[in-house]
Design a protein that fits this description.
3 domains; 5-stranded mixed sheet; transmembrane helix; transmembrane; ABC-type multidrug transport system, permease component; elongated; single chain; 14 helices; 369 residues; membrane; DUF373
């Protein structure tokens, strides 16, 4: 028996149509192909599946023993995707009811999907590999459209646009010596702006920014306190950075040049109280939203205490490096910070356990009455 395997390594079929895979059988595969063509007519995997159906019909008309199936991986397209394809091939082979030896004809739309061939070969002998190429894509008149589709595809634009953008950013560095001259300035500025645009396009920064704005808008209209907490925390972070820099300047004015450990200690010592306040603010905002949504768990209340514990420890260590406190204060602060975190964890764990037990006992007591 010849098994025609249509490979969809990035699982466009499952993600765009909701079909559960593997898809086995001529009628079921045709339904999947029509569903994928309806959801995304431009997807190349549509041609792969219809090519598999065409070969199936041709061989079936000759009274040959043949079956067709579609196997998929996942959208990551890595080793995990190859493993999923292998598992689906095992499922297809187990579903075949034939006493004949089974061989496979693999149909793909490119080299990326063909990377899974060794996985398939380890499970069933392969008679051949057929790569589907759309004829219109070979014409010069469709080159612009093809390039546009490649650049719009999140799976390929990163590999094309990011290296090109980096090359365009390297070019202005070579013109630093003549940056103030008009030709060098114009060319360098144009190249830098174009490089930044290509990198942002390759990373999808525009889409991520749009999604972040949309999430913020939904949080604002939903009355979520998390959004307000993040804004306040951002302001506290800025104030913490300014305070840390002021402390560092004071230390440098008093002692001159200092080493890197002392510089880090000064930054932490001057900013830790602001950073701790930011951490407590965000955790309280998240706790408030969880409580309003009815999904609050007792262990969530540990977050503010953990922030305070870390702040106590960092404050004591930085103060010790700056000779503001002695070794006894450092030991006491380390002990206090550790005990605060442990006690809060144990306390809320006990309360949560007691609360769960009381709720579990409630229905039993009601039934007994």
């Amino acid at each position: 028996m010849l098994l025609i395997l249509c490979v969809d390594l990035d699982d466009d079929l499952g993600r765009k149509t909701g079909f559960s895979t593997p898809v086995i059988g001529r009628e079921t595969v045709e339904e999947a192909a029509v569903a994928l063509a309806t959801a995304d007519p431009e997807d190349s995997d549509v041609n792969v599946i219809f090519q598999g159906l065409h070969i199936y019909d041709d061989l079936d008309a000759r009274d040959e023993s043949v079956e067709v199936a579609v196997v998929t991986g996942n959208e990551n397209g890595d080793v995990a995707a190859n493993r999923e394809v292998g598992q689906e091939v095992d499922t297809v082979l187990a579903s075949l009811t034939t006493a004949e030896d089974v061989t496979a004809l693999v149909i793909t739309d490119g080299a990326q999907d063909e990377s899974v061939i060794p996985v398939i070969r380890s499970r069933v002998p392969i008679d051949g590999v057929r790569r589907v190429v759309v004829r219109q894509a070979q014409n010069l008149e469709s080159m612009y459209y093809t390039i546009k589709q490649v650049l719009d595809d999140p799976e390929t634009r990163g590999t094309v646009l990011i290296p090109l953008g980096i090359l365009l950013l390297i070019y202005p560095l070579a013109l630093i010596g003549s940056a103030l001259e008009m030709p060098g300035f114009v060319l360098g500025t144009t190249s830098a702006l174009l490089g930044l645009y290509l990198i942002s396009r390759g990373l999808g920064l525009g889409e991520r920014l749009d999604s972040a704005v949309e999430r913020g808008r939904r949080l604002l209209y939903a009355g979520r306190t998390t959004l307000l907490a993040y804004v306040v925390a951002a302001a506290l972070f800025v104030l913490g950075g300014v305070s840390g820099m002021n402390t560092l300047e004071s230390i440098q004015e008093a002692h001159g040049e200092v080493g890197i450990p002392v510089m880090l200690a000064a930054l932490v010592y001057g900013s830790i109280q602001w950073l701790a306040a930011a951490g407590v603010t965000t955790s309280l905002g998240q706790i408030t939203d969880e409580y309003i949504a009815g999904t609050l768990e007792w262990r969530y209340l540990n977050a503010p205490f953990y922030v305070l514990s870390i702040a106590i420890v960092l404050h004591a260590v930085s103060a010790f490096f700056l000779d503001e406190v002695g070794i006894s204060y450092l030991a006491a602060a380390l002990t206090a910070g550790t005990l605060l975190g442990i006690v809060s964890t144990l306390a809320f764990a006990v309360v949560e356990s007691w609360y769960d037990d009381s709720e579990a006992d409630g229905p039993r007591n009601a039934d007994s009455i």
